[in-house]
Amino acid sequence: PVTDGSRELHSLCAQLEFLLQFDLKEKRSFFGQRRDYWDFLCQGLARCRQEHEGVHFVTSLDKLKTPVGRGRAFLRYCLVHRQLAESLQLCLLDPESLCEWYYARSPFLNPQHRAEILGSLYELDCVTFHLAL
Predict the structure, then answer these.
(1) pLDDT at residue 79 greater than cutoff 90
(2) What is the chain written as a DSSP string?
């Protein structure tokens, strides 16, 4: 199993975060706080009209104060529970939402790149992750 001490885990998480932040439009909340990929994921999963256990878990953690911290915790939760590919795929279903959150260079807006990314993430479902949540 992959644990918190794994160099590959840190590289994987850094690459995932890079992908989710690449060409992300700068958005602000009503109170002026910068919105990040965490907000994109929450909005995408909320559209499915089904509360995602990972979102519920992350929002219950009082120690997490920033969208980036929440996003990182969500990625780790999804890796442990083998839900990363499915969760991201749900967020990528709506082309209008993707255009609202990402500029044209984002790999998520290219159908071939999006399929390759999701295919790779589904392969991670075979890997066991033992991470501190």
Answers:
(1) yes
(2) -EETT-HHHHHHHHHHHHHHHTTBPPEE-TTSPEE-HHHHHHHHHHTTTS--HHHHHHHT-TT--SHHHHHHHHHHHHHHTT-HHHHHHHHTS-HHHHHHHB-TT-GGGSHHHHHHHHHHHHHGGGS-EE---
Residue 105: the pLDDT is 96
Encoding tokens for residue 94? 């709506």
Q: Total structural domains in the chain?
A: 1
Mean pLDDT of 93-122: 96
Task: Provide the whole-model pTM.
Answer: 0.91
Which range marks the domain in which residue 9 is found?
A: 2-130
Left if phi > 0, otherwise alpha if psi is -120 to 50, otherwise beta: which for 51?
A: beta
For residue 109, the domain's CATH number is: 1.20.58.900
pLDDT of residue 29: 65
Instruction: Tell me the average pLDDT of the chain.
Output: 92
Q: What is the mean pLDDT of residues 1-12?
A: 94
CB contact set of 61 (below 8 Å; sequence gap of 6+):
70, 73
